[in-house]
Predict the structure.
Amino acid sequence: MQQVSEVQGHTTMIYGSPYDDSFSYPAIDIPDLILDRNLKGVAPEKPAIIDGDTGKTVYSYNSLRERIRDFGGFLQHDLGIKKGDVVSYLSFNTTYYPIIIHAILAAGGTVSAFNPAYTPEEIAHSLKLAKPNHILVQDGLVENLESAFRILGQSVLLPSVHVLDGQHKKYPCYEVERILAQIPTWPPLQRIKRTPQQTKDDVAFICFSSGTSGLVKGVRLTHGNVVANVHQQGRCLANMFTPETVFTLIVPFYHILGLAGFCIQYLAHGAPIVVFKKFELEKFLESVARDRVTHINVVPPIALAILQSPLSTKADFSSVRCLMNAAAPLKDNLAKALCKLVGCVVTQWYGMTEASPSVISQREDEAHVAGTIGRLLPGMQLRIIDEDGRDVPNGTPGELLIRGPNLMARYQGQEESVAKSELVDGFFRTGDAGYIDDNGFIYLTDRVKELIKVKGNQVAPAELESILLSHPRVTDAAVCGLYLDDEATEYPVAYITTAEPAHKHAQLVADVADFVAGQVAQYKRLRAGVQVLDAIPKNPSGKILRRLLPARTSPETAAVAARAFRSATRSKL
C-alpha cells in the first residue's frame, strides 16, 4: 500500500503494510494482556517456561499466571512497590526472569532491565537515566552496583536495594524460588492488588539503546506500545503460533528481543519458551531435540557457531520449522547454509528498541525471497528519503523512516517528544539505509547512523572516542566498525594519532586497548584492533570522515590486521 502526497512543497511516498489495512489493538495494559485476556484459551498445564539445561517444565501457563500474581503481591506488600515506581532489575538469565518482569508490571511498576555485563560506570549512567525507586539485583552483581553508587556520590537519590538469591549484610536478601513456593500459603490479602490498572500511555519499560553521540539513551516504552506490537506480530505471523510451537531463548533477557519478544510476545501467544542461563552450543543442540523446538531466534554469530561446529552435523533438527535471524542482518550465504544444515526455512526480522521492538518481519511462507528483511508489520508506515530529505522511488536506496503505534513517545529525560533530529515530518529516523521493491519487500543496504553492531549489541563510536582521547599519549582518535566474516559480526577498531615515536607504537596500541577494556563492557572492547595514523580524516568543520578510515577503504586488509592484533592480545580482549 502506498500513499503519495505533498508535504512542504515536495512529494512524499508513505508505504503501509500489505497484511492489514485496518489495524487496531485494545487499549489495555500488559498485565491485562498476559493475566486476563490472551492466555484464557491456553490449556492450564501447557508448558510456559522450560529449563534448557534439564528439559524440565519449570512453569506451566497456569502456574505462570499464579506466580506472577503472587510475586506481584510480594513486591507490593513486602517491598513497597507501587504504581509509578521505577524498578531496575540487574540480573543474568534465570528461569524466573519473566515472572519478575511481569510481577513488577502487575504491581504497577515500570521495569528498567540492566545489562549484567555493564561496568560500574555504565551502571551509574543508566541509574541517572532511569532514576529507579527500587533495585532488584542478583547476588553476584552487587559489587558492581555499589561501585556505581560510589561514582554517583550525592548526585542522585539512591534507591532501595534488594538482593536476590544471595547473602549480604547491608541489604535485605530474598531467595526467589523459596518465596514463589511459599506465597500460595500466605493469606489472600497479601495477593496482588490490580487497582488501579495502568493506561496504555503509562510507561512499562525504560530500556537502553546506544546513541551515536555517546552513552546509552533511555527508551520509554508504554504499555500501549508493547501491546500494539504483540497484536502487530499476531496479525502478520498468525501461522507461526500453533499448538506445537516452541521457542528457544539464546539471547539475554535484558535485550529488547528477550524482554519484549520472549517475556511478552511469545508468552502472550501461548507458546512455550526454552530458557538458557547462558548459551552453550552442546546443551542448546540437546535441547532442540529433547524439547522439540520449532523456532530458533538467532543472531549472526550464533548462526555461524551452529554452522561451524561438528556437533551440528550430528544434531537432531527434525522438529525445527524456522530459524529467525534478528539484531543484525544475516548474509545470504550463511542463510542458505543454515537452511541446508537444519532443513528448515530461515527468515529475517528487523526492529529496534525504540519500536518495542518489531517493525518488519519476513513470514515463513516468504522465506524464498532472498536478501529481504521482510515487509512492514500491520499498523506501520514507512518513508525512504535521500540525503536532502526527499522521498526516493521504489528500488532506490535511502534512509528508512518509520511511524506506528509501537514507536516510543520519547527518550528518558526529554521533556516533550522525540528530538527533532530524530524525526522527519513525524517519522522516526532509523539510521539504516535500504529500499523497497514493488511487492513491498524491504532490503537493507547500509547504515546511516554510526553505531557498531557487536553480536546484536550497539556500540557508539563517540563513547569509545571519548575514552581514547582521555589517554595521555593519544592526541586524536576515531572509531568505526569492522565486519569479520569468520565471526559474522562487527567489532570496533580504533585509529589514533600520537606524538610518540614510531618504535613505541606497538606498545602504545596494546596499552590503549587495555586502557579502553578497563572502562567498558566486554562487547565494547576494541577487538578489531588499534592502529596509529598520521592524521584522522576530517571535513573542514572537524567532523570525522569515517568512510575514509582504513576499515572502510580497505576492509580486507583491515581484517587481516585485526586478526593479527587479536592474536597478539587474545588474553586481554
The first helix runs from residue 30 to 37. Residues 30-360 form a domain with the Rossmann fold fold (CATH 3.40.50.12780). The chain has 16 helices and 28 strands.
